[in-house]
């Protein structure tokens, strides 16, 4: 384990795991099977979220990101992948202080550039009319994977299929792999019309693609492994996952956690990994 997997490949692995695999099933040109790709992708994302929660608990720094943001009338809008704030710095690298709404400036006061407060998905510098550039360090959220066939494309552009998220900027910064043409690129921008602006490649219609998980690559195979267990719990499955399958998954994941985080001592409580 160690190489990355895109959502198309993970979908293929899950279909193999539930004994319903063919290229036509994976690509959605044959929909006669018991399992729908939309349902499988939902389980894949549930599995990814499960692993994200475990990794976040053990080492939040794995998902730390930073963004230099310019204030608009003292208001700062965080990136689409924002989950929770870690630190805010001014241009000199000095940490600003987070205050609650009860302590913010009065309307007639000028306020102070040392303080900020949160309102929903925005942050406000507690100084009137500020346009300072501030650096926000934050924990990024676990964004949902998507796989399918593009509906359009062009130079630096690829339009994802209708199962993709219809939310502007949602996939910004994520890696996408064109399975048909065998290239990987970064999504620089994304619109609510499901149009992805690529960093370097040329897209086209009728190309199969898969987004690449932002989890550490060592844990990519566990996304499909966990999704297979979830699929086997479905009422459509011929039989539920066996106790042995569940135990084998937990033991393999525990061993990966121990090696990844460097906890190889035999007295380490493996149960801590699963809370």
Helix fraction?
Answer: 25-40%
Low-confidence segments: none
Number of helical segments with 4 or more residues: 5
Quaternary structure type: single chain
Strand order of the largest sheet: 8-13-10-11-12-9
* Overall mean confidence score, pLDDT: 94
Q: Work out the radius of gyration.
A: 22 Å
User: What is the β-strand count?
Assistant: 13
- Could you spell the SSE succession in H and E letters? HHHEEEEEEEEEEEEEHH
Straight-line N-to-C gap? 24 Å
Structural class: alpha+beta
Amount of beta strand: 25-35%
Overall body shape: globular
- Let me know the largest β-sheet: 6 strands, antiparallel
Report on this structure:
This protein has 275 residues and is α+β, with helices and mostly antiparallel strands. Among the domains are: 78 residues, no CATH class; 65 residues. It is 25% helix and 28% strand. The protein is built from 5 helices and 13 strands. Strands 8-13-10-11-12-9 form a 6-stranded antiparallel sheet, covered by helices on one side. A 4-stranded mixed sheet has the order 2-6-5-4, with no helix packed on it. A hairpin with a 4-residue loop joins strand 11 and strand 12. The longest helix is centred in the first third of the chain and has 22 residues. The relative contact order is 0.18. The model has no long low-confidence stretch (mean pLDDT 94).
């Amino acid at each position: 384990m160690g190489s990355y997997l895109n959502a198309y490949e993970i979908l293929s692995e899950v279909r193999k795991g539930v004994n319903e695999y063919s290229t036509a099933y994976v690509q959605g040109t044959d929909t006669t099977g018991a399992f729908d790709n939309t349902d499988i992708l939902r389980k894949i994302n549930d599995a990814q979220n499960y692993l994200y929660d475990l990794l976040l608990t053990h080492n939040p720094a794995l998902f730390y990101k930073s963004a230099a943001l310019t204030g608009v009338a003292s208001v700062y809008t965080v990136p689409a992948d924002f989950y929770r704030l870690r630190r805010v710095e001014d241009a000199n690298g000095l940490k600003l202080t987070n205050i609650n709404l009860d302590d913010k400036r009065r309307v007639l006061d000028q306020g102070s550039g040392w303080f900020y407060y949160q309102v929903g998905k925005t942050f406000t510098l507690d100084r009137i009319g500020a346009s300072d550039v501030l650096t926000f360090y934050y924990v990024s959220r676990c964004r949902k994977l998507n796989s399918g066939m593009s509906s359009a494309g062009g130079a630096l552009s690829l339009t994802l299929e209708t199962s993709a998220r219809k939310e502007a900027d949602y996939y910004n910064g994520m890696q996408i792999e064109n399975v048909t043409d065998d290239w990987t690129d970064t999504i620089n921008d994304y619109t609510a019309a499901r149009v992805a602006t690529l960093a370097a490649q040329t897209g086209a219609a009728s190309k199969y693609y898969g987004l690449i998980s932002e989890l550490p690559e060592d844990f990519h195979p566990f996304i499909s492994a966990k999704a297979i267990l979830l699929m086997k719990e479905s009422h459509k499955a011929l039989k539920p996952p066996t106790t042995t399958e569940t135990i084998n998954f937990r033991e393999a994941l525990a061993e990966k956690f121990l090696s990844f985080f460097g906890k190889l001592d035999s007295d380490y409580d493996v149960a801590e990994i699963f809370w």
